[in-house]
Batch of 4 targets.
Target 1
Amino acid sequence: MITATTPSPQRDSAELVVEIRRWGMDLGFQQVGITGIDLHEDAAHLQAWLQAGHHGEMDYMQRHGSKRSRPDELHPGTLRVISVRMDYDPPNARDAWEVLDDAQLAYVSRYALGRDYHKVLRGRLQQLADRIAAAIGPFGYRAFVDSAPVMEKALARNAGLGWIGKHSNLLNRHAGSWFFLGELYTDLPLPLDRPTTSHCGTCTRCIDICPTQAIVGPYRVDARRCISYLTIELRTAIPEELRPLLGNRIYGCDDCQLVCPWNKYARKTTLPDFAPRNGLDGAQLIDLFAWSEEEFLKRTEGSPIRRIGYECWLRNIAVALGNAPKSESATDALRQRADHTSELVREHVRWALIEQTRKISTAA
């Protein structure tokens, strides 16, 4: 365990922050901010969200008690949080709307087209910590990238990286929302950055566009209706009434970001790590549905998609095939999975076959 260092004078701390920002930029982060650990208002918002049951089956949201809103409980000795953001929208990916408009293609959320962001950001946060230690000596820290009970968006907001929009994503006036967040919890008494102000105004585009109306009010998302939750976090059956609303989205959903006016300022990533792999920026549903489990594991190695597992992968694609236009090839592909060993897969295939049969019958 790295031991804490003796606090530096304020002048030295201010100079250190300048260096931390420079090192962060050198490591590929687009912005670095410093904040304290007071999150009591966000804790109240989280508690109300949990009490409303909006977390669905994400029981882990409740497991850690106050650690999520009290950084010094999660990592004792924490005084400050170094918050960073990194752009991820790949420059050469197929146009998102083009893919969504073709129901025979599979839509994968832009953040998951390339390498697992956990690994990319965590490695660079560790390098940032190493540079700080080389400059001042050992100090107390812990790096997080969506890997522990951390209120990353609230911390990033407080660190001046943006504001939380009505869709609950972080927004930046100069960079939109296509970026990842990461944190270094540290015992260094660094000077604080100022939070930014909100700039959503009266805009409701994100609320209006949501396919399942999961944004139940400004800044309130009911995860039980959110396509990202349904296709990634949920491990049981997708509610039947929501299946037609998923369209061809097989992993996540970006609609609320795609319509956000602030994303006209978003910048494409310069990192090859986030470039599309295996043609997932516009692959045919039938082709992905044909993957064996071995092929799924091989092709999703180093990808965030792997975390949902093969069973949910087939479940999601089955729903998309049920939503696809009438097609003998889609029906044949579904029939190939009708006797799958997983009841979860079989049930979704049955539903999809009924949808395909209904469309064919109606057309006839």
Note: The beta strands are 31-35, 80-87, 107-108, 141-144, 163-164, 170-171, 179-186, 215-217, 220-221, 249-251.
Target 2
Amino acid sequence: MSSILTNTSAMVALQTLKGINASLTKTQDEIATGKSVASAKDNAAVWAISKVMESDVKGFKAISDSLSLGESSVAVARQASETVSDLLTEIKGKVVAAQESNVDRAKIQTDINALRDQITSVVGAAQFNGLNLVQGTEAVDILSSLDRANDGTVAASNISVERHDLTTSTGSMGSGTDLSANATLSAAAATNTGNSATITLAADADVSGDTFEITVGGATLSFAAGDITGDQDAAASAISGAINALGLVGVSASASTNVVTLTSTRAFEDVAIAGTKNGGATDITLSAAEISERAETLTFSASANVKEGDGYQMSVGGTAYTYVAGKGETFEDVARGLKAAVDGGKIADVTTQVAQNDSGQWTLKVDNNSGSSVALARSAAEGGTASGGLFGLGGIDVTTDAGADAALGTIETLIDNAIDASAAFGSVEGRIGTQNDFIGKLTDALKTGIGSMVDADMEAASARLQALQVQQQLGTQALSIANQAPQNILSLFR
């Protein structure tokens, strides 16, 4: 049935043409924008995912800038610490040269002072955008990543850069918990008299048939039968004289009736002694197997920990010398710091040494070779301000024999500190560089992923555009034909 009121064919053709035009519009939008999902109405789920990933890409770009800034800051600190290490090595050369007595130590000290001032200049200038990693102790966090979990939550990751203080600051004692129990002092005073041991000979009216063998500090004296005549007193006198004739440094002997008294003023060395009569220990008695070193000892705990700000103080002759530990330091660092402090005090005839005892505890030894006793005391407390990593550099003075000797130990410690700082900065600089490279590659991967979801396939869109244009032309013709159908009814009335 034909109708002039309802043109079904035209309606069908019109709907088809509308669909073709809609598809054509969408294809043209894809070609114009380059995206198959340009807005949420195109595909809400894919659009939402792409927007989250795009925000992550922008975040990673900012992280890359942060890493570049951090890498530059660490590079400056590394270069500074390496320069400081080189300058300290030059100072060591000057200190070694000063060990000779026939050199102009005053001129050497002038060179050392100039190098020290240069180190101070380098440390002060080692900043990038105001951040100086070779001053202070507070760590610096560099944003390194944004980690998104399955539930959508985001957590920031950081690379922590530890500062390495290469200043010469003394630090200051705190007023916190008393830590004196962590350091034990062997005596309240350091004397200059040395320590003694005795060799006692039993009563014997005639020793001419006896043999004696006495060992002192590795040197052995042998008396065959007939070498000594008389009684035990004569034997003691002969043994004493023979020991003195050896010329052992710091060791002397004296005889009193049947007793040989051995005295050692060696500062940091025990002197072993042994003795036999007629091949055995009968009729000869030693008060000790060795004469202990003259120096008094500050012994640090083997079990306690050292925290940043823990201050240890040693008083020598009424003057207090202080070292305050920095982050990550140990009792070895504390002992060496106190040594540098005491050496820097330039106390006449007082020398120091750092060593480990048989129990593995770190010790600071103080020897007094002056004409009178020197009072000793110690104290410790937490909550202080840490000393600089080059603490003790200002106290280096090679104008005297004692100062030149002390400077050797101090400069070795300072070089180790500077090398440790350089190595630490180099390690973290490498890590930051690796992370920055990874962030760049990750950003590229995210962009690729976003593109695969929302970018249009231009080849397919182009082919589809041409097909739709043909369909549009055909749809227009079909609609035109359908609209002519009612006119054909007029021929029926002719």
Note: Helices lie at 8-33, 44-97, 105-125, 232-245, 331-344, 401-454, 458-489.
Target 3
Amino acid sequence: MSLFSSSSPAPAAGPASEVKEVTAATFMQEVIEASRDAAIVVDFWAPWCGPCKTLGPILEKTVAETKGAVRMVKINIDEPANQQLAAQLRIQSIPTVYAFLDGRPVDMFQGALPESQVKQWIKRIADAVGPTDASLVELLAEAKTALGGNDFETAASLYAAALQSDPTNVEALVGLGRCLLNVGDIEQARAVLAQIPADQAKTPDVVALKTALDLAEQTAGASGETAALQAKLAQNPNDHQARFDLAMALYGAGDKEGAINQLLDLFKRDRNWNDSAARKQLVQFFEALGFTDPLSVAGRKSLSTLMFS
């Protein structure tokens, strides 16, 4: 099946994302990293704060009108885990609202401003981002949803359409590369990776795609060895090389969870085997999947538990 089938039209773009509740644990991903693609407005609030309840809906409405040029998240400073973050940003009263762009804070205000002033402030932030093609934002959002649902044909069509508007859009290039990788077209995925500007090569999503491609090439053809390796482990569960090879074979066969579990088992049995090969390979798996992928999150938690047990 071709990823770029022209027999059916691309689906209409979906609605804008809802405002997220962010914590100190997700601040780096949802604010610092995300602000490289759009301005991120952070509303620091608490459930008991009356002015916060007045300001919040005004902010949400005004941000939505930017069509993706500005996005909004909320952080509840009553949560103990968020209090240190609030202290680092020197928040002494709420509501306090920060705007982040390109990984750093660029503006802020305190108190419940009138709607007219909120609109002026958001407009100033949106103008700092520059002109945004609303249709491009919607295409990328819909493509991300399709990719997350493993609908690689639809996602690839949408990413390709986005690249017609912006040929150097890194999110679209990475997304298209992921689609090609998932259908086994490693050569084309490499070609797409090569189009990413050099100054973006170290960003997390680009590094993750490169690592995933490296692993796909490394494990190509290994899936046929799973039965033999499982038989070897049945005879000798402490055959560490067989367990490591089985993890790689499972990864190549698409069983990412099984591959992670085999390496966790190996690490538990002998964490120092072959110069900590199990831990190093796990880190590569997590990087390839993306550190926010549910399998990575669960795997990293299990590895951390084993390391400190």
Note: The longest strand covers residues 39-45.
Target 4
Amino acid sequence: MAPVSDGAFAAWLAGKVGELLLGLQATMAFDDPDALRHAGDKQAHDLLVTELSRWRPADAVLSEEALEDNPIRLTSERVWIVDPLDGTREFGEPGRSDWAVHVALWSRQTESLAAGAIALPAVSRVLSTDVAPSYPPLHPSAAAGGPIRIVTSRTRPPSFLPALASSIGAELVPMGSAGAKIAAVITGEADAYIHAGGQYEWDSAAPVAVALATGLHASRIDGSPLVYNRPDPSLPDLLVCRADLAARLLSAVSQHG
């Protein structure tokens, strides 16, 4: 039986999809990474859509893996924004844990994200708005007077980040999935995540929902709000960080970005 509350439901569903993905890795192994990735994307999407249709039949869905975007979401009261497998590249590489499942709910009543969950199956962790994580402590290296840690894409980091990091004395930490990177900020393993150069709503909706519930800062890199369920789902940049670092990082981005 699925949970009644949306936050608990998001966590339950993200965890269920994560279990499916771990099962695929176990049965298909990593002999054919492309086949594993394709199966992961498809089966995770199919399970998400099936469970949402069963337990939330009146709600619309925006999924990365859908064959087409159903415009009904633009007039729906509730829209689930999901990324069935965030970090598909990393999912197909043995030994990597930086891939995730994203499940978020957008509500027309508030014109904002109402619930969300990030599953990190490879480390048996689900972070959700149902029981929001505590505000994270400063990373130990920064607390000891060392550099703050900024997680960034391992394959397409923003070109301005090295100069930005140098200007504020930060350490760049490459990582896979956007969900895994924002989860690192939520748990205090990193102090900030900066991305520019291309993403979509499903890349950030669920982790941003959890980050905001935790009390972290989340915005576009120019400081403007992150807006979801728009006709064009492109949402190319974002900053997620400790609230006390937001002004400093937004200023640095304005100088170097």
Note: The CA atoms of residues 76 and 203 lie 21 Å apart.
